[in-house]
Design goal:
It is a single chain. The chain has 16 helices and 11 strands. The protein is of the alpha+beta class and 425 residues long. It has 2 domains: 204 residues, Cytochrome Bc1 Complex, Chain A, domain 1 (2-Layer Sandwich); 194 residues, Metalloenzyme, LuxS/M16 peptidase-like (Cytochrome Bc1 Complex, Chain A, domain 1, 2-Layer Sandwich). Strands 1-2-6-3-5-4 form a 6-stranded mixed sheet, sandwiched between helices. A 5-stranded mixed sheet has the order 7-11-8-10-9, with helices on both faces. Strand 9 and strand 10 form a beta hairpin. The termini are far apart.
Length: 425
């Protein structure tokens, strides 16, 4: 898979992945800003601005006009906001790629930001906040990041609060765009049945007016933890939802491949250790899943499970036994299990690259955040280079009981039962 890079005169970079045999193409515009760049007063503005972009620009001057422009060529489009980036994409027939450039450039470079639209959308986002609060499987992750990143903007919910969302003004949006939407922190990615020369010309034509300015530094995260942290969120529900995790490395570290194999051993499919031990052998949970999340300057390993509240203590003890058992080498990894973990990763990675939007995500995120291109071949080689000793070493480094963070939503009146598990040696 060949990747082409071109930086325009205004310092905007376009990354093209030509796929001649593919009939479709996806254009994604990335902006290297998200909720961690906000302050308490404007919390949620990154996500709110994502909504406002779809309300129209200079040419397509309403939400209906924007939608009709993409619908008229049978395309699909959406956007998403994270703590470190925002992305907008259009996926459509490759021969209609100019329409994607036309619509996205209008939305992002000339957003209308009508006060009436802002006021109306406030109600929509307040309802969205309520929806997430009523989804404990989602909400518990927000609470977990509040805990592990306590006191830092990384711990703030991407969506903001009802109060901050209601307080945002048109002037707030204009100032935010001027501060963060500039070319050296933007990236255009195109994957599919397109040519490099075509995407460069279209980027110049539609995004050539985008301005550049000095970068705004982020507030770095300095992780310091010497004892377990526990958060219990009482809620009268039938199932308890829990997340437990540990600090880990930032984006781009060489240990990423050993970490990924470790995660695959623990949580890679229905034959993984956690699924087998927690669900199949003991029937303690329907869902149990672990993953690594990375940011520019930090990261974490975390594990989710949905359990019967009466069995929550037992489930936690089984999970911790598996994590600490790998760290201490009490539980060995067989050669067969090790090979399976690697092959599972390679297989799922290959499947993820069968969609042009996913290809933009793979190449785009790496380049936006690290300024590097990583190829699929490098990923496969990185996985193969991991040894069994590497996995044990990473388990020993990460699964440190003094750096554990635990969050649970469920019908619990106090945290005493969890203190007994985590704080008593």
């Amino acid at each position: 898979m060949d990747c082409k890079l071109k930086t325009l005169s205004n310092k905007l970079t376009v990354l093209t992945v030509p796929m001649p045999s593919v009939e479709s193409a996806t254009l994604t515009v990335w902006v290297k800003t998200g909720s961690r760049r906000e302050n308490d007063k404007i919390a949620g503005i990154s996500h709110f601005l994502e909504h406002m972009a779809f309300k129209g620009g200079g040419k397509y001057s309403s939400a209906k006009a924007v939608s009709e422009a993409i619908d008229s060529v049978g395309g699909e489009f959406n956007a998403s906001t994270s703590k470190e980036w925002t992305q907008y994409y259009v996926r459509l027939r490759a021969d209609k790629i100019e329409k994607a450039f036309d619509v996205l450039s209008d939305m992002l470079l000339r957003p209308l930001l009508k006060q009436s639209d802002i006021d109306r959308e406030k109600g929509v986002i307040v309802e969205e906040i309520g929806m997430y609060e009523d989804m404990p499987m989602k909400h518990v992750w927000d609470l977990f990041e509040q805990l592990i990143f306590k006191g830092h903007s990384l711990g703030r919910d991407i969506i903001g609060t009802r109060e901050t969302v209601k307080s945002l003004t048109k002037d707030d949006f204009k100032k935010y765009i001027d501060k963060h939407y500039y070319t050296t922190d933007m990236l255009v990615t195109v994957a599919g049945g397109v040519k490099e020369s075509e995407t460069e010309k279209l980027t110049e034509k539609y995004f050539g007016e985008a301005k550049n300015k000095n970068k705004v530094p982020i507030k770095r995260y300095d992780k310091k933890q010497s004892k377990p942290r526990i958060m219990v969120y009482p809620k009268e529900i039938e199932q308890a939802h829990l997340v437990l995790g540990f600090p880990a490395d930032k984006l781009g570290q060489k240990e990423r491949y050993a970490d990924a194999v470790l995660n695959s051993v623990l949580s890679g499919g229905m034959s993984s250790r956690l699924f087998t031990e927690v669900r199949e052998k003991r029937g303690l949970a329907y869902a149990v899943k672990a993953s690594f999340d990375r940011y520019a300057d930090t990261g974490y390993f975390a594990l989710y499970a949905g359990v019967d509240p009466q069995k929550s203590e037992k489930a936690i003890k089984v999970i911790l036994d598996q994590l600490y058992g790998l760290a201490s080498k009490k539980y060995k990894i067989s050669k067969k299990e090790f090979t399976k973990a690697k092959e599972y990763m390679k297989g799922h990675f290959a499947l993820s690259l069968e969609d042009t939007r996913a290809i933009n995500g793979f190449f785009g995120h790496e380049y936006l955040m690290l300024g590097k291109i990583r190829t699929p071949d490098e990923v496969y080689a990185g996985i193969e280079s991991v040894s069994l000793d590497d996995v044990y070493e990473r388990a020993g480094v990460i699964f440190n009981e003094n750096k554990l963070n635990f969050t649970v939503i469920g019908p619990f009146k106090d945290r005493n039962k969890f203190d007994t598990i985590f704080l008593t040696k």
